[in-house]
UniProtKB/TrEMBL annotation, chain A:
Species: Plasticicumulans acidivorans
High-level lineage: Bacteria, Pseudomonadati, Pseudomonadota, Gammaproteobacteria, Candidatus Competibacteraceae
Residue span(s) of domain TRAP C4-dicarboxylate transport system permease DctM subunit: 7-416
TM helices/strands, residue ranges: 48-66, 78-98, 104-124, 136-158, 170-192, 213-234, 240-256, 276-295, 315-343, 355-375, 395-417
Protein name, UniProt field: TRAP transporter large permease protein
Family classification: Belongs to the TRAP transporter large permease family.
TrEMBL record, chain C:
Name the UniProt record assigns to this protein: TRAP transporter small permease protein
Source taxonomy: Bacteria, Pseudomonadati, Pseudomonadota, Gammaproteobacteria, Candidatus Competibacteraceae
Record keyword Cell membrane present: yes
Primary location group: membrane
Any one cellular-component term (Gene Ontology): plasma membrane
Bilayer-crossing regions: 12-35, 47-64, 85-106, 118-142
Any single GO BP term: C4-dicarboxylate transport
Subunit structure: The complex comprises the extracytoplasmic solute receptor protein and the two transmembrane proteins.
Species in which this protein is naturally found: Plasticicumulans acidivorans
Length: 425, 312, 160
């Protein structure tokens, strides 16, 4: 009953055109009225407590690091290095895109930021070399969603905070499936590139390659610092985020010298604005999750799903399908905030490893970012690359199939995530 | 007269902790005493928010009851900070006598002016020290140990005075920090060292008993004032019974935790009384500065209460 | 013109808050490794700045229509139906904001009496950020609602 009320109000409010944060608040207020615990303070108090969080401070810091890498020339150098290394293979710029996507994913925590960088840098290049726009934009979108799976990752941070899972463990567990996504894209692209009417780029001489490697080394050192620091316990995830931001700032200002003070101010403003958007949603979700706790919604849902609890794989299949359906129309952050705290207790009851569940949740949710009708990464890829949305959807379709195979593998063999996570930990 | 009521009761620890068990006991006791009229719905694991959030909800009447640390009250009524002073009580009997006696009850009377009703004190426990460097057998052993302390300036000063490097960290980041060596050690009651699995990442346990941490059972002032005298009396009665249950349970649990931690391979040591005395002296300047801010007359009242408890 | 400069001030404050958060949190890491100590106030102060950043930024985002939402269904409706939906959505959002503001006001009064553990600032400073955000948002929405209702009299399109 409470579950139906909550979801009904939430969906109706969103259909009415209310922003997700307000729809969440309204659904929470409806629950509050139904539970007979009506009090405006609970709305205000939970909003404020939702924003007042040290672990979530990693969000602005990683966003800042991403903005700095883009404005400070770190991203551009990584793409240039990728062109020098794999540009001469058949369909080379596609492999460049995948390589750059994986490396950028290990630097940035946001799919949107990565997609925008890739689309701005690579799609024009692919066009001038005769690649058709649809697969180019599709590949950029598919590559962009590796960012939230490979650490650092904003969605994994938000999931960790909202479900009380260790962010460090989630980060370390995200590496293997992220690389698997990259591998799936490579195989898929190799098959697609068979009959592309484009000539490969000339081979870059190795001396020049080495020079470019040395130039990009400053940027490439960052994932080593982040992962090594988390693995070795030098710092917590929030501190890793601030170190990434300070490092990117130092490299942009002192080494590459591509950032002037006016640009720097713009970078801070942009990062702060995006932070406010994400965090206002987190704050609203704190209100709804308070009410969800009071209404004991997870228990209700668990009673309905009881027959699935007998088999972890069956339950995981159901969760993946549910998240794919939700991902068609909903963005990743609200999906995490609304569903992860409700589904995790169920997964644990069925004996699913919580860290595996968390990484899978973010992986499936990220795929939702490139499924129509609502896919924010699709919109960014199409918008920045100046390719029509329908062409982008057509272009992303084969990669969606490839990711479907990855999902099936990960559901059938959870060890693909849990075993490498144990090695790293 | 009695009316059917639902009491939202929040607490921070897990449902299967000593805190959770005592809250359940309180709920059952109150239900029995009120013949089913006063129903407690309890929410563990900080699902109604952190202590400070619940406390503000109580003041505003948005939540009815909670149990939490007295340290959270310091932001409203400074005197509660006196309970944070190091080496205040030598044993639990002194703590019981002072908290349940005139001094502890006088502090509770300061709360209604701020929208809170303090019902009883429960026991979190004496805090002990763990670390990975060496057993702490004397003051000098603390030199250079990187120690996580609570985010309270008093503890930073005290442990720095001991020669340790006091690092304030949120509790939520503590396990990772210990596991990865960001800090060498921490200090908490034995029950916490067991429940939060610090024994997996810490080698030495030194029974310093350097601080006694009480919990306090609180009710919302605006809500309380709307209750009948009979309802208030029943709640007080259940609170007193739950206090006795909680203290006995916590002490049993602490003894079991010690045996458990030893069985897990922690190297446990006690400190000679003379060493404790040296630590107390070394902590004195920081304690005095801290107590002076709160008010010298309160400190002397507390000391009088303690020495009276010692005579018995 | 005046709202434009107000926006610049907001942006400046947000950028400043973010920069200060970076300094405080990074400074604490440096202190820990270089001197084996830390500033207890760093976490508390950076969290206060964070809360202000979030609520100022959320207000600014509403002004710029940047909050995440869906217009899939709305895009298929007739202009008149869309306007009716928009009026209803505005009223519901105003109701939620009324609760947010009223609750923040109560929490602000409570927070005048409650101080933070390390720095001892009144916790009302946190509730104040919420109160400003809620009232500012309500003011924006009221103006838009007024525009919607006025445009209902004519055949003009509703403002975006
Ligand atoms: Na990433
Ligand atoms: Na989608």
């Amino acid at each position: 009953m409470s579950l139906a009320l909550f979801l009904g109000v939430l969906l109706a409010a969103m259909a009415l055109g209310m922003p997700v944060a307000f729809a969440l608040l309204l659904a929470a207020v409806a629950l509050m009225a139904q539970l007979d615990f009506f009090d405006a303070q609970l709305v205000a108090q939970n909003m404020i407590a939702g924003a007042d969080s040290f672990p979530l401070m990693a969000v602005p810091f990683f966003l800042l690091a991403g903005e700095l890498m883009n404005a400070g020339g770190l991203a551009r150098r990584i793409v240039a290095l990728a062109v020098a290394c794999v540009g001469h293979i058949r369909g080379g710029l596609g492999f460049v895109t995948i390589a750059a996507a994986v490396v950028l994913a290990s630097l940035s925590g946001s799919a949107l930021a990565d997609t925008a960088m890739l689309a701005a840098l690579l799609v024009p290049m692919m066009r001038t070399h005769g690649y058709p726009p649809a697969p180019a934009a599709g590949l950029v979108a598919a590559g962009g969603i590796i960012a939230p799976v490979i650490p650092p990752s904003m969605p994994l941070i938000i999931l960790g905070v909202s479900t009380h899972l260790s962010i460090s463990q989630l980060f370390l567990a995200g590496l293997a499936p992220g690389l698997l996504m990259g591998l799936a894209l490579v195989l898929c692209w190799r098959w697609l590139a068979r009959d592309l009417p484009v000539a490969p780029l000339p081979r870059t001489p190795s001396r020049q390659r080495l020079r470019m490697l040395a130039d990009a080394a400053w940027a490439l050192a960052l994932p080593v610092i982040i992962l090594g620091g988390l693995r070795g316990g030098v710092f917590t995830p929030t501190e890793a985020a601030v170190i990434a931001a300070v490092y990117a700032l130092a490299v942009s200002l002192l080494v590459y010298r591509e950032l002037n003070p006016a640009q720097l101010y713009g970078v801070f403003v942009r990062a702060a604005k995006t932070t406010a958007l994400v965090m206002f949603l987190c704050a609203a979700a704190q209100v709804s999750s308070y009410m969800i706790t009071l209404a004991e919604l997870p228990q209700q849902l668990g009673d309905n799903l009881a027959p699935l609890l007998a088999s972890p794989r069956l339950l995981m299949t159901a969760i993946v399908l549910l998240l794919l359906a939700v991902g068609m129309v909903m963005d990743l952050t609200p999906t995490i905030l609304i569903l992860a705290p409700v589904l995790l207790p169920l997964a644990q009851r069925a004996g699913i490893d919580p860290v595996y569940f968390g990484v899978m949740f973010v992986l499936v949710g990220s795929i939702g970012l490139i499924t129509p009708p609502v896919g924010t990464v699709l919109n960014v890829a199409a918008g920045v690359a100046r390719v029509s949305l329908s062409d982008t959807v057509r272009g992303v379709a084969p990669f969606l199939l490839a990711y479907g195979v990855v999902l099936a593998l990960l559901v059938a063999f959870p060890q693909l995530i849990t075993t490498p996570a144990r090695w790293l930990h | 007269e009695l009316r059917p009521r639902v009491i939202r009761f929040g607490y921070g620890l897990a449902e299967d902790s000593n805190q959770g068990r005592a809250v359940r006991f309180f709920a059952e006791e109150l239900l029995r005493l009120s013949a089913g009229q006063l129903k407690v719905r309890s929410f563990g694991g900080a699902s109604l928010g952190a202590d400070i959030q619940m406390q503000n909800a109580l003041i505003g009447g948005a939540q009815e009851m909670m149990v939490g640390s007295t340290a959270t009250l310091v932001g409203i009524v400074k005197v509660f900070g006196l309970y944070d002073l190091p080496f205040l009580f030598n044993d639990v009997h002194e703590a019981d006598a002072v908290l349940d006696g005139p001094f502890g009850q006088k502090l509770l009377t300061l709360l209604p002016a701020h929208g809170l009703i303090g019902l009883t004190y429960w026991e979190n426990g004496f805090r002990d020290l763990t670390n990975t460097r060496r057993p702490i057998t004397r003051l000098e052993d603390l030199a250079g140990v990187k120690l996580r302390v609570m985010q309270n300036p008093l503890y930073i000063d005290v442990f720095d005075a001991f020669g340790a490097h006091a690092v304030p960290l949120p509790f939520s980041e503590l396990f990772t920090a210990l596991e990865t060596g960001t800090v060498d050690g921490q200090e908490n009651p034995l029950t916490t060292i067991q429940s939060d699995k610090f024994y997996e990442v810490q080698r030495y346990l030194s029974l310093t008993h350097h601080v006694y941490s009480p919990w306090i059972l609180l009710a919302s002032g605006p809500w309380w004032n709307g209750l009948s005298a009979e309802e208030q009396a029943l709640i007080r009665q259940a609170a007193a019974a739950a206090r006795d249950f909680e203290r006995a349970d916590t002490r049993r649990q602490a003894a079991q935790a010690l045996a458990f931690l030893e069985a897990q391979g922690m190297q446990v040591n006690r400190l000679p009384v003379a060493e404790i005395e040296r630590m107390r002296e070394r902590a004195q300047p920081a304690s005095e500065r801290f107590a002076a801010e709160i008010g010298p007359q309160w400190l002397s009242e507390l000391q009088a209460a303690i020495s009276q408890a010692r005579q018995h | 013109m005046r709202t434009k400069s107000l926006q610049r001030w907001c942006e400046g404050l947000m950028a400043f808050a973010l920069a200060a958060m970076v300094l405080l949190v990074f400074g604490n890491v440096v202190l820990r490794y270089a001197f084996g100590t830390g500033l207890a106030a760093a976490e508390e102060l950076s969290r206060l700045l964070f809360v202000w950043l979030v609520f100022l930024g959320a207000l600014l985002a509403l002004r710029e229509n940047a909050h995440l939402g869906f217009d899939l269904l709305q895009a298929r409706l007739s202009p008149a139906a869309r306007r009716r939906c928009a009026v209803l959505a505005h009223l519901l959002m105003l109701y939620v904001l009324w609760l947010f503001a009223a609750g923040s006001w109560t929490q602000l009064r409570i927070g005048l009496d409650v101080r933070s553990p390390v720095l001892g600032y009144p916790l009302a400073l946190l509730a104040l950020a919420g109160l400003l955000c809620a009232t500012g948002m309500a003011w924006l929405l009221l103006r838009r609602l007024w525009g919607l209702l006025r445009s209902a009299d004519t055949t003009r399109e509703p403002p975006a």
